[in-house]
Design brief:
By secondary structure, the chain is mostly helical. It has helices spanning 2-28, 33-38, 42-69, 76-92, 98-137, 139-144, 149-172, 176-180, 187-198, 202-214, 217-229, 236-250, 261-269, 277-295, 297-304. The protein has one domain. 77% of the residues lie in helices and 0% in strands.
Length: 314
């Protein structure tokens, strides 16, 4: 029954992605889209791929730093390599979590199931939390944009709500009484929160600071370079303002790897800063293609550099 339900959910996500892509393409695709793509500045496109590759390396180093904080010092090359693989599978598998499952399975012999799953979950939460924190810091900018009042309120709620909830949860798990009465189905969440608390020391946060920044800002820069390769003519600050909102919209588990949702968010939001919807659509599609291209080497690394089933150094 669970397998059939998972298959149904996967088919629904495929349907959502295809429906969204079809709708935004029919409505917003520029008539000269082929010539725009053919005339894209190849130098900027190559720069975008290089920057995105650096961002994926930083994302892998973020997971490595988390594992190190949980007393599992694995080789950085192995952790970064499987991070590329995870990104690729998250982009193409219907679950949206296939890459995370592969990462956890890959590390279980070296870390044990608890740390393998916990580190992947913390990596996900840390990445999303940093995106939400950036959106929250940019709230004054969003309030000044010509956005509908309901959308402005939603931005504040979506960015601040999860951060407040995480903060309260981390406070509650400090109490032994709370930990004692947590129902068994929620014990994995409790374990993840306890692991997360281990990161909240100055030394460990300093270790995570660079990978957190490097795991987001290059993605924004890549999107901006691709937009400029199509002749958008926007300052990078506009990309810094809009792209985090697009990334947050992608986190809703409605489609495959954010395909369709990302394009819909791009054509809805980028016109607020002067980009034509058609250009936003093409830039978003190029960004998705760039993610697949730059993460493809992870498939090779996954097969050629398997982690040996031996304990990691503490």
């Amino acid at each position: 029954m669970m397998i059939r339900r998972a298959n149904l959910l996967g088919f629904l996500k495929i349907a959502v992605s295809l429906a969204c892509l079809y709708a935004v393409w029919r409505i917003f695709a520029p008539a000269n889209w082929a010539s725009m793509l053919a005339g894209a500045d190849i130098g900027l496109v190559l720069a975008a791929l290089a920057v995105l590759t650096l961002g994926q390396i930083s994302s892998g180093l973020r997971h490595w730093a988390i594992l190190r904080s949980l007393n599992r010092a694995l080789p950085p090359v192995d952790v970064v390599g499987i991070a590329f693989t995870g990104t690729l599978f998250n982009q193409v598998l219907p679950s949206g979590l296939g890459g995370d499952v592969i990462r956890a399975i890959h590390f279980k012999d070296r870390c044990g199931w608890a740390r393998a799953i916990g580190s992947v979950a913390i990596d996900r939460v840390a990445g999303l939390g940093f995106k939400l924190a950036l959106v929250f810091l940019l709230v004054p900018v969003y309030l000044a944009l010509p956005l509908p009042g309901l959308l402005k309120a939603l931005i504040v709620l979506v960015s601040a709500g999860p951060l407040v909830g995480l903060g309260l949860a981390l406070l509650l798990v400090r109490a032994r009484l709370v930990r004692r009465f947590v129902p068994r189905p929620f014990r994995p969440i409790l374990l993840g929160l306890l692991y997360f608390r281990r990161l909240l020391t100055p030394r460990r946060l300093a270790l995570l600071a660079v990978p957190l920044l490097g795991g987001l800002l290059p993605y924004i820069a890549c999107f901006g370079l691709l937009g400029e390769s199509l002749g958008a003519g926007l300052p990078m600050m506009d990309y810094l303002t809009i792209v985090p909102l697009v990334f947050v919209a992608m986190q809703f588990p409605l489609s495959i790897g954010g395909w369709g949702v990302r394009e819909g968010a791009a054509v809805a939001l980028f016109p607020m800063v002067g980009m034509a919807p058609g250009t936003a659509l093409l830039a978003s599609g190029l960004f998705g293609a760039a993610l697949i291209i730059t993460s493809a080497p992870g498939l090779v690394l996954w097969w050629t550099r398997p982690l040996a089933a031996r304990p990691a150094s503490a």
